[in-house]
Records
---
Amino acid sequence: MLRVAFFLFTFSFFCKFNVISGDCLTDKDCVFHDWMSWQDCSGQCGNQMQIRQREFCCPEHVQNKNRVNCLGACSIALSESSKFDESRPCRVCDEGHLVAASNTCVCNHGYRGPCCGDVVRCSDNPCKHGTCKDTTSSFVCTCDPGYEGVDCDTRKACSGGISCQHGGSCRDTGSPGFQCHCTRKYNGEFCENVITCASQPCQHGTCTDSPTGFKCACESSYTGVQCDTDIDQANELLLPEWFPYLEYTLLSMVSLVGVMAMGCFFLKCCQAFGVIGKKDDDDEDHENQYEDYKRYKRDSIVPLDHRKPPSFKIHTGLEF
């Protein structure tokens, strides 16, 4: 039926023959005019069409001016009749806008269908995360906690009033939005579920349900809320109590050695450049006198009337 309707539709336009006879000059006979504008899109959604036409100067002497007679008088083949009019499929979006490249409609909220002519109802399940209620115009969604938007299809951010229960913390993840990080005894989107021993949380022990969740009785070699920590391995990682003091002692020794090394380095430099370490004449005389004095004390055979050589006199530093 659709093909028959389409054929009748197009045939009715092909039979319409627009010609110009009285206004055509003799030298303009048998000439096609420029194309006219496209007519409005018409027809039912899915079978809509629009056409455009152009006029033809038919010779004045043709009595019955129709397509066949005019083309025959102009010695133009009947196959050229396609130059008189042409058609193309089209689409009118009732409640939306047309994407010309694909000839499809993008519908406004609350409407659907190939031409956006159908009203969305709750039977179409429009609410992604919420409950739906039909209205006179369309529908209204009541979103679940954590979601927003006309269709409840947008996940909230932590700043949108998200509250994670039982000590959980909210963190933004960008997409799909927030995420609650729960303590070890709770789970769920908002940490609302108490972990029910049915989930077998105790890895190395027996579980007992309690009003606040569960409680694990761990085996002798394990510890932790879920009996998931090996005591022996944990002890191997512990350092002795005196270890920090040893560390401080070693650091102090290294620092002292470093200071001494720097002192020796600077002392050698000062001696090399003559800042310290060179003896003057007074120091050399003082040392010579001291050596003579020691030799005198060792010599017990010196006569009593023998005078001490002048060099034995020890200068006190006050004599000039």
Note: The first helix runs from residue 2 to 14.
---
Amino acid sequence: MRPVLAFSIATFALASQATAEPFDGPPSTYAETVNPALRQVGTDLRVRQTSCVASSRCRFAARQVDIEVVGPPDRPGTERIMIAATFRQGDNAAATKLVDDTLTVLGATMVVYDPGMVADRRSEVLLELGDAALTVGEAHQDSTDVHYALSFDDVSGRLEITAATLRAGHG
């Protein structure tokens, strides 16, 4: 899985997308803001909306990667993006592809929602989170504006990576 991790990191290290205050946009705009970043790095992976509840909680999918984008109910904006995938035991080929897809979605999310993070730091965070997913199962990283949290439950096979604006707190 290491080569997949290296590819995902290298792909997003150089990607950039200028957006002012991306967390100010409503959850429903996640796909339209992330898909250009996915196209920019040449992947065929695309995010599509699957549901929205009162514009403050929207669900998206990209192949077998699930994304939930949550905003405050009382005002427009986004506070938290959770990227998740569930792995099946014994299917290493599928697991490798799923890790690649998950980190690709995370990388595109970082490019759009954490534009102030320099490419080298983005590479470091992706590498650290990817390593944690494969080893200890938990990690936390902060940029200037965003808190990243990873958890992997090896019993259920569920990987969750959350990106939350620091102004929303570390909940």
Note: Helices lie at 2-13, 30-40, 92-113, 119-134.
---
Amino acid sequence: MGSWDERCHDILGVIVDQLSAIEDIGHFGAVCQAWRSVSVEKWHLSIVDPWLMLAEKKDSDNRGFYSLSTKKVYYLNLPEARGRKCWSSYGWLITLGLDLEIHLLNPFSRSRVSIRLPSLRTLPNQYSIETSPEFIRRAFIKKVILSSRPSKRITSEDHNEKCVVMGIFSEFRRLSFMRLGDEVWTHVYTPREEGCITDVVYLNGQFYGFTSLGKLVIVDISSPDPKTIEIAEPPDGRSNSAEFYLVESVGELFMIAREVYVEYNGVECNERQYVRDTDLFEAYKFNFDDSKWTKVKSLDNRAIFVGVNASFAIFPSSYSECEPNCIYFTDDGLYGLMKETPRKDMGVFWIETEEFDDHYIGPEILSRICGPLWICPSP
């Protein structure tokens, strides 16, 4: 006969097996540590593929999440994200509202701890005081990523040295970072000759950035004067006209180049409007031995997810509805989803055949605040 702890674990397992909704599993795990350990096991069995967080409904605190596995939309009550632009990393949301305050939020946790990060106003290269909060909310932050998953019980007063928040900010697309518990953002110096930062990734204990000039840089935050250090030139024959994403996968580094056609589409609300249309993706793999990129026509059975989320890759299993050797993408432009267009710039791209398809067809796509984004549900 097993110990009482083992029998208690088995009983809790029977209980949680009766739960089908992800939010119910999350609520179960919020009771105590023993219940949480059982819910995490069930969670990982229930969540096979990433979810697409849809655009917010007008005048509603409910937010839709489309599961690639079940082809269903699940709704969570998420007032903390209402009216706020969102980015995602490690299953957490980073949000920015008209108050220009930045928060870190796990949308799947019952406790819904909202961690207030240093204000946007502590960052350099601010817009002029005449710039509207609506425009700042939409345009000032390009991307924010985490180095690791924050502690579930963390509050704004706690200090978590293991988690670093790194973001691409301002119209000049510069890096700044903070460790949870810091009161201000720390600026990272990037020489002008390296270009603007277009994406950033955390790999093997180190941040890497990719620039608008196609250069790969290390983000050195260990010194008193943080800076980027160029380590590789652009891939041979690769133009700098594309949008670039860095992707970490089991210790390897990939770069995805996205060729986008942009067309002027008139003026709405006194602002110029543009329609985006992705024409092609190309994939490159980095060799750390010779600091060279190699173009690849296969992702080695990976599925890669890009957009305003921290880019990531998975290996689809037999239980997955994701396709291997595909790039799943959302529209991360400033204007692409703000009005009806013949084609929404999101879908699936088969890297081997260079064909496109849809991954979600339905409502809750258009938004003046925050379009759909990828997120991996995390308890």
Note: Residues 190 and 231 are 13 Å apart (CA to CA).
